[in-house]
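Let us practice reading a record.
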Amino acid sequence: MSPPAEPVDVCIVVEGCYPYVAGGVSSWLDWLIRKQPDLSFGVVAVTADDRPREPKYRLAPNVRFLQRLALAPDEHGEAEPRPILDPEPLAELLCHILRDGDAAAFAGLLALAGRPVRRGGPLSRRAPAPPTRADFIHSRPAWQALTLSYDRLAPQASFTDFFWAWQSLVGGLMSVVFAPLPRARCYHAISTGYAGLYAARAALATGRPCAITEHGIYTNERRIDLVMADWITDRIESGLLGLDQRMDVRDFWIRSFESYASIAYAASSRITTLYGANQTLQRPMGARDEQMEVIPNGIEIERFGTLGRLPHPRPTVALIGRVVPIKDIEAFIAAAPVILKAVPEAEILILGPMDEDPDYFDLCRRRIAELGLEEAIRFTGKVDLRDYLPRIDLIVLTSISEAQPLVLLEAGAAGIPCVTTDVGSCREIVEGAPEESPNLGIAGRVVPPMDSQAIGAAVAELLADAGERERCGAVLRRRVETAFLSETSAVRYRTLYERLCTP
């Protein structure tokens, strides 16, 4: 679907999910678009590469186009004669972008990328022509800019590791800079990162406003990924206090994503998130109070609230989520022996897509085999939750990072209590936000992340007490009905779009 000649009302920019990954933010985004039927939308989907992908969602009728933006496109055979670029100012701009999150430097890079260049030797008579992404990544001036930047940013780090980090980070940046820019009355990024950079570029290039909505804080999630990454080798011993300020490659990765967030925040008219605590992570990277707004998630309670309960012979506990490391499926598996020791007849389900990270899925299966749990734990793959919720007694969330997970709200709409790790706004969902007056009560149990013993003990406690489960489920349903209704959230986003689209 190519962009139409006329501008759409809202161009959504999303990274690594909709419409190619099911669940979570993708489900929310599909809901958001369908809840604004009189607005026209376009979608720019940022993906890691340009390999074919099968959409997991049927696009809503008001989506006018879907455009892919590959961060690492296949550029084989696209080399041009060498561009005549000055590597010094290019390195200067890139250092200010990657290290400082300098929005003016980002604007300068956009200007440089829009300036025609000559090709060939100094005596070439070829007319100047628009530059390409490859000119800024694969040419001799690009190499010189890289080496200059290495000396300025991380000279103590491994150059080989720095090179590959640069190829990824600056390669993605240049993909954003050179991607086609569809026309829209406003641009709405559903994270910072490359999606946020693209929205910032659109705002600078078109003069139209952009907004950012963050569910989880992108920089925080990338920091977790990078701290845990065993494919990065640290060269600098910073000590327990981290007093050594020299930049290693791991630091370079983290700092760059923080810088991208700062640039996106600086360009945005509005920055929304799901709950107030997220804003404490946004402010240090430049988000200003006058830009910021909290819009909680909303649930169509009638979709889950009329399901009722079906008889089932075994106490059933389910984790609903993608089988990926950030959901910490391993912790749930490790909690299973604790659950089964207390409730031997328990049925343990993992409901969600298994194809997003095949290596992690294989790891989880090996853990199950090592613990001898093949008969106790069952992966179902992606399912319609309405077919399963009537037979589930308890929902478990073991993530190490979340924002305001829809699965807890869906469980609440169905009157099912939850055990959740203490991440994002999960404690507020289970125990009530400080502003909840009067407090409705406790709707489950909150446990530390990555603590399988605590997870298992909390699940076993609730599985063994039907009365407590019923009470907790009723509390969670009342909380969802009070604070997390779909229509309320949809109206808030409609107001946001009206404000952004006003000429």
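A brief commentary: The mean pLDDT is 92.
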